[in-house]
């Protein structure tokens, strides 16, 4: 457990265990590294398993500015540089997928061995030519207002949408702690930016091998999103998790770890 200053006044909390190929897990919007609690013990045995909290999230510094995918990707680049990570496998869950694509767009693929995309679309927004998007303007506006006016109750309704089965009280408690750790203004700012970024045009140029992991029982992201990514990413494979919704690494951790292990060994 440690903190790393990636820019003046921006300290990212991270955990770094094991040796070998660096496998870097990147969480979703409002979430934290804690959601990958079933991955570190497994992957540290043969790899260098790393999780981090993005700026404003989890235990990282609560900066009031810089809450865009572009800036988060810049933070990620500095993080990788300062830890001197080589040939990284980037695992991006939900919003974390946008960071992966933004990182590749800004810094190229030379230092990336492979990428893993977990339950995300090329864009969350329902553009006129992208009807499978998760949010339209009315939904996004509603979410942003709920974050400002009724956040805890809103999250009590939102968090169960990430899981196939009912969320137990103990699980809900720690997830609420993590998702309410951000200042409300920060939560709204990054929600908006991550909801309107669009990586459709850049997907065909990505050559690095990609594993796509999608829960078959998704309530937030349509299953067709995985098929769209598979059809537009030249070097990708798609794996469905039959008993998972938005969090296969929590809902089917053994199978998720197996599929990710298999993918890493194939690189």
TrEMBL record:
This is Pimeloyl-ACP methyl ester carboxylesterase. It holds the Pfam family Abhydrolase_1. InterPro entries: AB_hydrolase_1, AB_hydrolase_fold, AB_hydrolase_sf. Coiled coil: none annotated. Transmembrane segments: none annotated. Keywords: Hydrolase. It comes from Sutcliffiella tianshenii. Residues 22-130 form the AB hydrolase-1 domain. It comes from the Bacteria.
